[in-house]
Amino acid sequence: MSKHRGRGMASINYPIGMNLGGDPSQALVHSNPTGKFTVALSSIDLGQGMKSVTRQICAETLGVPVEDVFVDTADSDTGPHCMGSFASRGTHRVGNAVVAAAKEARGVMMEAAAEELEVNASDLETDGRGNIHVKGAPHRSITTKEVAMAAQFKQGKTIAGRGIFLVPLSPVDPETGEMSPATCYAHACLVAEVEVDDETGEVTVIRMDSAYELGRALNPRLVEQQLVGGAWMGISHALYETPEPYYPNPKHGPRDFVEYVMPGPGDICPHDLAVLERPAPDGPFGAKGPGEMCANPVLPAVANAIYNAVGVRVDELPITPEKVLRGLRAQGGAKPKARR
Amino acid sequence: MLELRKEYFADERDDNLNEIGKGTQRQDMLGHVTGASTYFNDHKLQGMLHLKVLRSAHSHARIRRIDLSEAERSPGVRRIIRGQDVPRNLNTLLSLINFGVDDEPTLAVDKVRYKGEPIVAVVADSHREAFEAIAKIRVDYEPLPTVFDVEDALKAGAPVVNETYPRNTFTYHERYDHQKLRFGDVERGFAEADHVIEHRYQMSPIEHAPTETNGSIAAPDTNGRYVVYTSTQALFFSLDTCAKILDVPSNTLHFIGGTVGGGFGGKVDTLTEPLAILGAMLTGKPVRYIFGREEEMQYGPPRGAERIYLKDGVRRDGRIVARKVRAYFDSGAYTRLSSYAVVKCAAHLPGPYTIPNVYGDIYCVFTNRTPATAMRGFGVTAMDFAIECQMDRLAELVGLDPMEFRILNAYRDGDMKAHRREAKNTALVECVQVAAEKAKWPIREEFRRMSSRQGVAAPAPRREQAPAPRPTYERAPGYEPAGRNEPPPPPAPAPAPAHGATRFSSVFGTRRR
What we know:
The complex is a heterodimer. Chain A is of the alpha+beta class. Chain A has two domains: about 5-15 and about 185-330, Aldehyde oxidase/xanthine dehydrogenase, molybdopterin binding domain (Aldehyde Oxidoreductase, domain 4, 2-Layer Sandwich); about 25-165, Aldehyde Oxidoreductase, domain 4. Chain A has six helices and eleven strands. In chain A, strands 1-9-10-11 form a four-stranded mixed beta sheet. In chain A, strands 4-3-2-8 form a four-stranded mixed beta sheet. In chain A, strands 5-6-7 form a three-stranded antiparallel beta sheet. Chain B has 13 helices and 20 strands. Chain B has helices at about 30-35, 70, 125-135, 150-155, 185-190, 235-245, 275-285, 295-300, 340-350, 380-400, 400-410, 430-440, 445-450; strands spanning about 1-5, 50-55, 60-65, 75-80, 90, 105, 110, 120-125, 140-145, 180-185, 195-205, 215-220, 225-230, 255, 285-290, 305-315, 320-330, 360-365, 505, 510. In chain B, the strands form five sheets. Chain B has a seven-stranded mixed beta sheet, with helices on both faces. In chain B, strands 10-18-17-16-11 form a five-stranded mixed beta sheet, with helices on both faces. In chain B, helix 6 packs across helix 7. The longest helix of chain B has 18 residues, at about 380-400. Chain B is globular and about 80 Å long. Chain B starts with a strand and ends with a strand. Strand 11 of chain A pairs parallel with strand 1 of chain B, so a sheet runs across the interface.
């Protein structure tokens, strides 16, 4: 009886946004009288970082520091319509709506600044640190706070903007399935190394290496959070969890976290990530979105690694020790394939 | 742990930005790590009542009689709600986007179609009193035959799960029991293949397992409005669903979400809000309805199981020439969102590869289990499992390294996809190259030099200083869309493969990569 190591890989792509489109989101951006901005959304932050990524998008578009922007989410009275936080649509759809709203607000802000500085708005630029100045003449400058004060109390202007982003709904041909499902796709390839115990059937994931292409990574720390967490979910899908362990027989379903088997902290393996950025032509600053895809390559990569380790193919998830042992018995023991 | 490979696609990006691309700390981080973030269940309102539901003990049964007499007299009970009390008891979630027919009651009336289906709701002063009253409800069931296997459900004479769909399948385009995908001539592709394999893959159901279970609190507000604190992932989706079920104008409802304690797709179905609001309407008090852990795991919707049959034809040179897919999505007793995932799955075929002949039949099937719903990777996760396990088998069959086999068949810019749109902005080749490099998985030089783009060579791999000569490229001929109801012309017979170099016969004529 011994332990066998093997490696497997998988490569995937993933569509961004609701299939076929038709899933709009809106955003409102407005300044208070001292030049601090609020983004009002009805979108939901599920922990994925919706508030933070839209905050960065708004600050970049306005040309102000990120500290001058806060994002308010999830109120149907104050936040305009959003389809919801699903289908990898948050960054792409809501982000684009925020870009549009922030552009409109920036336009008013620059006009108000131009009036104060007695120049044309087209001659002005932002420095990203809270100042607006004449191009090529940084000394002819005004702060965004001074501009907001002037707009509110002197000029009677609203430094505010509205934005919506909509990919129009695509029809589906009933006979051929011809359709426009998505405007951009993210990509990934993942390598999993496993160790299979041929006495117990237990599979341990030793390490993972992966490359993800996600369009522009707006916040690499949030990307990392998604990819690491998603890969853990992938391991869990591949090897552990299901509410129907004898599917399609519905009996013996787990009722709590004692009975529902998931990997614990000790089952997490090192995961070395590379991120490639091919900007989506219609993404906010080229972003696509890492949210959903990151569990997907792990399942087949682990299954293929188990085959590489002991020669057993398990085509029914989850790949429990029982299924591995049955496979080993059927073929008369471990039959490792060429080491990769 | 994470490295940004800026050398790839650098010419397509403007990296000179102020805030974009920075790892700025999350706006809500301090609240999360100090436990100060507010969840829906942190709203403790004066005089708040608690709602619980009686769930079906059977997977499929007619309801002969419901006796509430003892439950009504139970201490602390404020109101008992039945299906008749729900203004528009029947709904289907995607009716908001005009997809599908109303097929699911908020509270079952004459029949239950899965074990755990809500039948009666009890509003009481406390959780405990609600549970005690539920234990006193007597339901007289007439058990009916059940079906749990997706393929059994399609057989003649199978029990009808949901009378809205008497064939146990969702109806597509008002005439088909599945979504079709047709591209090229798959049988001709198999005839041209050197190897044909077919395998069956089974994805298990998965529980979203959020730390915070589904729930909401509804309270009467001024002007006849109701404020609703909710765990929903989709604020207006849930609001509009409630407005429909309760038959009130949408501005009757003020939904407030906030931090969600884990969603992953399991908080779209608007499971608690309609009854919590109705409870508040009927009692005039704030009403809280939150799932217990067992309810969340067994009766909250899971990721649905999928069964996939995948048949592939591959040539000796490693090119996949045909892929045929038959897949069954187990929707459980009601549609929820599975009907949508089926179309998304059809669009995803044949995975990120360029295959000239693709055929797909994808079914949304009803069985007597908890309705399934969206989960991370909806419509795609199971298919990727099947496709990528099959890819491993195919690579072994033709004696190619699995990485090289992926690169060989990967879609590139300008390729025609099976749903008849040109591939753009692709990057699969580069992902495989970088993953191989990171894992120290050797692949041959010509595969390291390939690119997703026309006329562009991959950046030199790290630790490799010697520049390789740039290969030359020809662009694939443009694609002319075929008539709407006829398949595209079959691909020209492939020329003899000149394999081993960087030249492949492609789908639409010959091109070099």
